[in-house]
Amino acid sequence: NIQPPSCFGAANGRVEVVGINGGMEPMLYSLDGENFSPRSFFANLEAGNYRLWVQDANGCELDTIVLLEHPTALVLSMGNNDEIQLGDSKLLNPQINQDLSALDTFYWAPADGLDCLTCWPVSVQPSATTTYQLTVVDSFGCVVEERSTVNVRKERRVFIPSAFSPNGDGINERFTVYAGPEVAEIKSFRVFDRWGELVFERVGFLPNQELEGWDGRLGGQLIKNKVYIYYAEIRFVDGWEELHQGDVTLVR
């Protein structure tokens, strides 16, 4: 009875003698021709060729070659490491030399930035450079692991115009904060006149939303064309916060 290893590189193969024709009992068995034992099976074997020896009570010997075949190795590829901009996402779509239906389980780690721990493929949006590991277990219990590093480039792109013109022509009507996907929230956006009077305030909103911006009014009334001072508290998706300040010219 021959049982090859269950997984590539494993040492759990087994050879067992289940019957012998002829010879005189008791029988002795060996895999090296030197160390004989009455035990008729050999366990914890790697794949490969073995010479099995049988010796009877009269010292007569018989040998034969036994082959324990190599199981197919699980091969998992994650592709090259990638670089993304902070706030962007990346699809990790590994390749494996088996049908996904033949796999028992697979799971990702760490959980940071993952949209799913047991999906294939998986979308990741890390807030810092992260190495993701995929562990795959097939129906035989064979395990393969592979890693992929997603490098995060932290360009903190924020644009706040230096002028706006709320004159009803549909162009540049409101004053707001524009930013890339790396910005999670505008925590606060305040505009003051030169004497320190608050003329506009908005808190807890997303960038690039023109309707959230200032329309050049105070208390519902249009105010004078002049230079105003702004302060914008900005929170990024990695938790970093910045204060942007400057001036803006209102022109009609």
Pick out the low-confidence regions: none
Sketch the major β-sheet.
5 strands, mixed
Helix content, binned percent: under 10%
Widest sheet: strand ordering: 16-23-22-18-19
Layout: helices, strands, pairs:
Elements (H helix, E strand, L loop, with lengths): L1 E2 L9 E4 L11 E3 L10 E5 L2 E8 L5 E8 L7 E2 L4 E4 L4 E3 L2 E2 L6 E7 L12 E3 L5 E9 L4 E11 L4 E2 L3 E2 L13 E2 L3 E10 L5 E8 L11 E2 L2 E2 L4 E10 L4 E10 L2
Parallel strand pairs: 8-14, 16-23
Antiparallel strand pairs: 1-2, 2-4, 3-5, 5-6, 7-10, 9-12, 11-13, 13-14, 15-17, 18-19, 18-22, 20-21, 22-23
Mind explaining what this structure looks like?
By secondary structure, this protein is an all-beta fold. Helices cover 0% and strands 47% of the residues. It is rod-shaped, with a radius of gyration of 36 Å.
Keywords:
five-stranded mixed beta sheet, mainly beta, 47% strand, 252 residues
Quick structural summary:
This protein has 252 residues and is mostly beta strands. It is built from no helices and 23 strands.
